[in-house]
Amino acid sequence: MILVGANEPLPEDHFWFDGEGFSVYAAKQPRSTWQEHVHDCVQVTVGLEPAHMHAEWRATGKLRQTKEFIGNAVSVIPARVPHKTLWQRRAALIHIYIREEFLLRLASDILQQDSLELQSTYLVRDLLIEELARSLYLESEGGHLNAAVASAAVMTLCVRLLRAYSVRKGEAAYATGGLGPTRERRVREYIEADLERDLSLQSLAGVVGLSPQHFAVLFRESTGFTPHQYVNHRRIACAQELLKKADVPLIEISMQCGFSSQSQFITTFRKLVGMTPGRFRSSLTASPS
C-alpha cells in the first residue's frame, strides 16, 4: 500500500494512476495531516498554489528536521526515509511514486552508474518539476490520464532527479537553490534563540555573511517566506504559547516576542491567526480540557 499516513479520508475526487514503474496521485487536498510514514519507493511531492506546508523528516538516525513553506514547492523523498507533512490549507497536491529499480535502470542508462543515492530535499522551488506535476494534474482532472503522456512526464522527471538530486559516490551534493541546509539552519537557530532582539534583514544576512538583497532572495527560495514574514510567523507562534498562561499581560507578551508595541502585536496576530490575542486566549479557556 503506497498511500499511507493520511489522517483524514482521501478526497472523494482524488485521482490514482499506475504506470510502468511509477504511480501518480492527484487531488485538491484539503487541510490535512500525513503522519510519519515511509515508502519502499522514491516519492516526489508537489504542492501548487496556494500551498502552505509544514514538513518533518528524519534523514539520518533519529535527528528530526522541520521546514515550513508557502507557495509552489517540491519535495524529493528517497525510499525508507521517515517523513510527515501538514497541509495548512487546501491546495493542488501531486504525489509521484517511482520504483527504485525503475530509477536505477535509468541511472545506468543515463549516468552509467550502477548505484543511486538521492538527496532528501524538502519544500524547495523547482520550476521544471512543478510544471511536469502541473501537466499531470491538469491531464488527470477529467478522471483519465493518458499512459503515453504520463510516461513521458515521469521519464523527464526521473532525468531531473538524476541530474539535480542524486549524488555519485565520492561527490558532494548538488545545490538545489536557496541558502542550503547549513546556512538555513544557522539563520533559523539565530531567530529562535532570541525573538526579542533586532531581527532586521541586515542582521539576519550578517549571520551567514551575505548582502541583505542576496540573502532575501535565497531565504525566500529556501523557505517560501520573506525574512520579515518568517520572523513574524515565529513571533506569533511564540505568542500563542505565552497566551496559554492566563497571568501574562498582552503588553509583556508583545515585548517578549519582539514587537515594538502592543498595537503592532495585536495587528500582526489578527492578520496571521484570524482573531485578536484576547479572543485567542478566551478560546483556550473555553475549550474543554
From TrEMBL:
Alphabetic keyword roster: DNA-binding, Transcription, Transcription regulation
UniProt-listed Pfam families: HTH_18 (PF12833)
Keyword DNA-binding listed: yes
InterPro entries given in the database record: AraC_XylS_family_regulators, Homeodomain-like_sf, HTH_AraC, HTH_AraC-typ_CS, Tscrpt_reg_AraC-type_HTH
Domain HTH araC/xylS-type: 185-283
Signal sequence coordinates: none
GO molecular function, a single term: sequence-specific DNA binding
Family matches, as PROSITE patterns: HTH_ARAC_FAMILY_1, HTH_ARAC_FAMILY_2
Keyword 4Fe-4S belongs to the record: no
PANTHER family: ARAC SUBFAMILY, HTH-TYPE TRANSCRIPTIONAL ACTIVATOR RHAS-RELATED
Name of the protein in its database record: Transcriptional regulator, AraC family
